[in-house]
Amino acid sequence: MTDTVTSTPTPAPTPPPTKSRPGGSRLAGVLRLREFPVALALIVLVLVTYAANPLFLSPQGTKDLLLNATIMIILGVGQALVIITRNVDLSVGSILGLVAFGTGSLFANVPGIPIIAVFAIGLAFGAILGAINGLLVTLARVPALVITLGTLYIYRGLNNAWAGGTQYFADDRPDAFGALSVDTILGFPLITLLAVLVVVVVAIVMAGTRSGRDLYAIGSDPDAAKLFGIPVGRRVFIAFAVNGVLAGLAGVLYASRFNSVGATTGTGLELDVVAAAVVGGVAIFGGSGSVVGAAIGALLLTTITSALTALRVDKFWQQAIVGVLILAAIIIDRVASIRTARRLRLSEARDV
């Protein structure tokens, strides 16, 4: 009698779990960044313009491109701080004009004044003007759009009364001060490197400190921010004051960059600054965006002007394209917000 041996079938080996590729997830994360479409548009614009006019990226052309964007980058960073808190500052052009004329006045009337002292006075002057905006917004509880529209005209009127028909020219300032926008390091103008330093420092503060993160919480939901113990009024005041400091810095650099400053310096600049921040991905409704995106938006807008000039496109189309970009940025942001809210509702429904 033979024994029959029954063999149990060997289970098929289970395939190892598939691991998501880190490179793919990183790439997806980059593509989802709010700044990515703006940076891509900037690169495409530069390449197309260079193909049509190779002089566009000549050493002098690149230097001019960076210099043209420097003032706007600094102003855009300050404006981003305010917009993130669900506010806006329309007076930055007037602040810049006052500080720029004050800078020219210091050099003309105080011979031998150190350049570092001029910078300190300009920053302090800008901080005071920005703090006035912050106090009015936080204490009066009136929309910042209304408050800063009023201070726009007040500051501009002060500049007109102070300057009158007086203008200060490049000959009235020290050569070392004018050299800030002429001298370069590795091809980058000194004032542009200063603007990059501003972007890096403010970006680190916004991402790595509680006060920076509080600004996003305030912009997302001011009432909820109060419930969590965030000092909303103080944070908004600081955002306006810092914006004033940066506008003061931009005013001093404006006096170094351009040949003359007077009563009309900075007129109309405020709308370009708001446009730069919005195009750079800073949500006009507050709560999202970054100062890096605002800086890229500022560079994109100034590059559009330079590129279309190099391509001999009429100035009307330059303004029209900027308007289209603003509308596109707002619509894209709104659509993204709706999709995010819908995904949250769906995930909550699945959890229930």
UniProtKB/TrEMBL annotation:
Biased composition (Pro residues): 10-19
Protein topology in the membrane: Multi-pass membrane protein
Function: Part of the ABC transporter complex LsrABCD involved in autoinducer 2 (AI-2) import. Probably responsible for the translocation of the substrate across the membrane.
Protein name: Autoinducer 2 import system permease protein LsrC
Localization per record: Cell membrane
Record Pfam families: BPD_transp_2 (PF02653)
Residue ranges crossing the lipid bilayer per the database entry: 36-53, 65-84, 90-108, 115-136, 185-207, 236-255, 316-336
Keyword rRNA-binding applies: no
Matching InterPro entries: ABC_transp_permease (IPR001851)
Subunit structure: The complex is composed of two ATP-binding proteins (LsrA), two transmembrane proteins (LsrC and LsrD) and a solute-binding protein (LsrB).
PANTHER family: ABC TRANSPORTER PERMEASE PROTEIN YPHD-RELATED-RELATED, AUTOINDUCER 2 IMPORT SYSTEM PERMEASE PROTEIN LSRC
Predominant location category: membrane
Keyword flag Glycosyltransferase: no
The entry's keywords: Cell inner membrane, Cell membrane, Membrane, Transmembrane, Transmembrane helix, Transport
Origin species: Agromyces humatus
Residue ranges, annotated region (Disordered): 1-24
